Amino acid sequence: DTGVSQDPRHKITKRGQNVTFRCDPISEHNRLYWYRQTLGQGPEFLTYFQNEAQLEKSRLLSDRFSAERPKGSFSTLEIQRTEQGDSAMYLCASSLVYSLGRPTNEKLFFGSGTQLSVL
Amino acid sequence: SQQGEEDPQALSIQEGENATMNCSYKTSINNLQWYRQNSGRGLVHLILIRSNEREKHSGRLRVTLDTSKKSSSLLITASRAADTASYFCATDEETSYDKVIFGPGTSLSVIP
């Protein structure tokens, strides 16, 4: 399977616990995104990477959220001291961005997501 | 933050009818994409239209882009029950890094 994979698929945790999610993008893709989605809403941008560099983190994201992509391949998203409001589907997507003078996005490939429930 | 706004929020049509969804955005873009999401599933890319294009077709899909009005439309012709899903437009802001952000989506129900 050469698609985007996310692990785990489901995570149930108690409020105050830390959780970490992993995303393995398509191997040749240099851009990786994290989004959060709640029922009936569109994906909300969290952060994204170009290779190993984190380009931007959403201003709406608290300091409890951190993401890494240490070798420009897989990425992890950690949430510290989880709150009930963190319950959502966390989506990862990857793409190949061509740099012909300026970056040009191509289509995103999404994983199946990690469903987080904070009790 | 969300860039695009889809209209309508929900749409219900009979099988065989055409479905039209609209998307408006705020900033200059390089391209606009449409994605589909079945209930409980991940998003699947449908079509991408670049800022210098005005119309694009893919099977039963037709997308238009009007950069002067900062708007796009997605037309699904001869709809099928299997087209029932949520549809999202996504734009990449014309900034130095071109992040892709999504609108709130249109929920389409196609009644057999």
Oligomer: heterodimer
User: Which percent range fits the helix content of chain B?
Assistant: under 10%
Mean pLDDT of chain B: 91
Number of domain units of chain B: 1
Q: In the CATH classification, which architecture of chain B applies?
A: Sandwich
Roughly what fraction of the amino acids of chain B lie in strands? over 45%
Q: Number of helical runs of chain B?
A: 0
Shape of chain A: globular
- The whole-angstrom Rg of chain A is 14 Å
Overall pLDDT confidence of chain A? 91
Class by alpha and beta content of chain A:
mainly beta
Number of strands of chain B: 11
* CATH top-level class of chain B: Mainly Beta
**Got a strand count of chain A?**
13
Given the C-alpha coordinates, what overall shape of chain B results? globular
Features of this protein?
heterodimer; A: 119 residues; seven-stranded mixed sheet; four-stranded antiparallel sheet; 0% helix; B: 112 residues; six-stranded mixed sheet; five-stranded antiparallel sheet; 11 strands; 58% strand
Structure explained in plain terms:
The complex is a heterodimer of chains A (119) and B (112). Chain A is mainly β and 119 residues long. Chain A has no helices and 13 strands. Chain A starts with a strand and ends with a strand. The model of chain A has no long low-confidence stretch (mean pLDDT 91). Chain B is mostly beta strands. Chain B has a single domain (4-95), classed as Sandwich (Immunoglobulin-like), CATH 2.60.40. Helix content of chain B is 0%, strand content 58%. Chain B has no helices and 11 strands. Chain B has strands at 5-7, 10-14, 19-24, 29-37, 43-50, 55-58, 61-66, 71-76, 85-93, 100-102, 106-111. In chain B, strands 2, 4, 5, 9, 10 and 11 form a 6-stranded mixed beta sheet that branches. Chain B has a 5-stranded antiparallel beta sheet with strand order 1-3-8-7-6, with no helix packed on it. Chain B is globular, with a radius of gyration of 13 Å. The N and C termini of chain B lie far apart (36 Å). The mean pLDDT of chain B is 91. Classes of the chains: A mainly beta (119), B mainly beta (112). The interface between A and B is medium-sized, with 30 and 25 residues.
